[in-house]
């Protein structure tokens, strides 16, 4: 049983950790960079671009469970909801995930430990995307900016009422 790992330090779509438990117990690590095109759920959330460096390092935690230390650093550009210009969100994640064999173990746990289901092929990019999604703000706004295109927005907003008025 040999985990599928890339030869270089660059990982991307389709990179799998073949056996997460073994990866953790062996203290292995993987790192690379991810672009927005590799992050379908973050793209669906409106990301314009992303530049993320990640690492996943295996270890056994204080309770004896195989675990991943996931770090992600970089930025994601999302559309500011006020001015409609890109707004860079800084991402700095350092989170430990405890690997468990069943969903029941994860859902039944009554504590603050972050857990992930250990499956035979763990998709590295999807794992990183999961962690990044947790960090994305619900509403993206610059700290200080002006509402977008007053003239065009006002005229667009006015048009439905204008056309209703004409029908009357
Ligand atoms: Zn803005």
Shape: elongated
> Structural class, please?
alpha+beta
Quote the average pLDDT.
85
**Main beta sheet: strand number and arrangement?**
5 strands, mixed
**Poorly predicted regions:** 1-12
Number of domains: 1
Bound molecules: zinc ion
The helix/strand series, from N terminus to C terminus, equals: EHEHEEEHEEHH
The strand line-up of the biggest sheet is 2-3-4-5-6
Report the helical percentage. Answer: 25-40%
Tally of alpha and pi helices: 5
Total beta strand runs: 7
User: Which radius of gyration do the C-alpha atoms yield?
Assistant: 21 Å
Euclidean distance between termini CA atoms: 75 Å
Q: Estimate the strand proportion.
A: 25-35%
Protein topology:
Layout: E1 16-17, H1 20-25, E2 29-35, H2 40-44, E3 47-60, E4 66-79, E5 86-100, H3 103-108, E6 115-117, E7 122-123, H4 124-135, H5 150-167
Parallel strand pairs: 5-6
Antiparallel strand pairs: 1-7, 2-3, 3-4, 4-5
The protein binds zinc ion.
The site of zinc ion has 8 residues, from loops.
Structure, described:
There is one protein chain. 28% of the residues lie in helices and 34% in strands. It is an alpha+beta fold and 168 residues long. The protein has one domain. Residues 80, 82-83, 85, 87, 141-142, 145 line the site of zinc ion (ZN).
Which tags fit this structure?
binds zinc ion; 168 residues; single chain
Give me a quick take on this structure.
The protein is an alpha+beta fold and 168 residues long. It has one domain (16-167).
């Amino acid at each position: 049983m040999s985990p599928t790992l890339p030869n270089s330090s660059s990982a991307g779509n389709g990179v799998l950790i073949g056996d997460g438990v073994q990866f953790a117990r062996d203290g292995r690590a993987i790192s690379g960079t991810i672009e927005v095109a590799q992050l379908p759920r973050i793209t669906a959330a409106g990301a314009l671009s992303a530049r993320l460096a990640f690492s996943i390092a295996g270890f056994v935690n204080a309770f004896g469970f195989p675990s991943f230390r996931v770090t992600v650093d970089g930025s994601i550009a999302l559309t500011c909801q006020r001015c409609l210009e890109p707004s860079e969100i800084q991402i700095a994640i350092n989170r430990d995930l405890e690997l468990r064999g069943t969903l029941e173990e994860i859902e039944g746990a009554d504590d603050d430990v972050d857990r992930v289901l250990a499956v035979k092929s763990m998709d590295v990019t999807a794992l990183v995307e999961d962690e990044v999604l947790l960090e994305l703000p619900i509403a993206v706004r610059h700290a200080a900016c002006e509402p977008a295109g007053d003239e065009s927005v006002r005229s667009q907003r006015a048009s439905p009422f204008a056309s209703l008025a004409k029908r009357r």
